[in-house]
């Protein structure tokens, strides 16, 4: 599920958070996510960044969104249950077909999610490769169910 199309003001707001470092935008953007009809979950898991990318950016925008969602929903935020263990090319640098291959075995999940209904949080869904790889990694680690919410969905180019 996603809140809107990745264009206009929503795109600009996501860019200001993600690349401009305007972290205060995480709260109002997470409030947009709260308007989506999400199922009951046991834990919130943000899509992780590789530790090198995290050092460069200094924060993970999906973790900031997850932190606000956790407070609003009174649901635990599991920041370390899903890790990006392999550095990959940026998804924007590879074609749609190559995105799944690029992410293969890039994530690892801990067993603390076993038997839980997980709400996976992302900022932008393009081809779905990232959330599919994250969700399957969580399920292999024992998650009962994984539901995805994101701020925006980019539309295919025609």
Describe the 3D structure.
This protein has 158 residues and is an alpha/beta fold. The chain has a single domain, classed as Rossmann fold. It has helices spanning 8-18, 26-33, 51-57, 61-73, 96-103, 129-140, and strands at residues 2-5, 43-46, 82-84, 107-109, 117-125, 145-153. It has a 4-stranded parallel beta sheet with strand order 1-6-5-2, sandwiched between helices. The protein has a two-stranded antiparallel sheet with strand order 3-4. Helix 2 packs across helix 4. It is globular, with a radius of gyration of 15 Å. It starts with a strand and ends in a 5-residue tail after the last strand. The mean pLDDT is 90.
Weakly predicted, low-confidence segments: none
The ordered string of helix (H) and strand (E) elements is EHHEHHEHEEHE
Task: Determine the number of helices (DSSP H or I, runs of at least 4 residues).
Answer: 6
Envelope shape: globular
> What order do the strands of the largest sheet run in, or round the barrel if closed?
1-6-5-2
The CATH class name reads Alpha Beta
Fill in the CATH topology: Rossmann fold
Question: How many distinct folded domains?
Answer: 1
Determine the strand fraction and express it as a percent band: 15-25%
């Amino acid at each position: 599920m996603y809140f809107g199309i990745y264009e206009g003001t929503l795109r600009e707001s996501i860019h200001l958070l993600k690349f401009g470092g305007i972290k205060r935008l995480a709260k109002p953007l997470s409030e947009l996510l709260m308007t989506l009809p999400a199922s009951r979950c046991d834990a919130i898991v943000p899509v992780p960044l590789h530790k090198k990318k995290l050092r460069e950016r200094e924060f993970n925008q999906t973790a900031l969104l997850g932190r606000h969602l956790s407070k609003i929903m009174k649901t635990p935020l599991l920041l370390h249950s899903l890790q990006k263990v392999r550095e990959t090319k940026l998804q924007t640098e590879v074609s749609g077909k190559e995105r799944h291959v690029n992410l293969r075995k890039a994530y690892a999940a801990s067993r603390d999610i076993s038997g839980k209904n997980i709400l996976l949080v992302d900022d932008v869904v393009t081809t779905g490769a990232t959330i599919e790889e994250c969700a399957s990694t969580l399920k292999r680690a024992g998650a009962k169910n994984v539901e995805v919410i994101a701020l925006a969905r980019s539309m295919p180019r025609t």
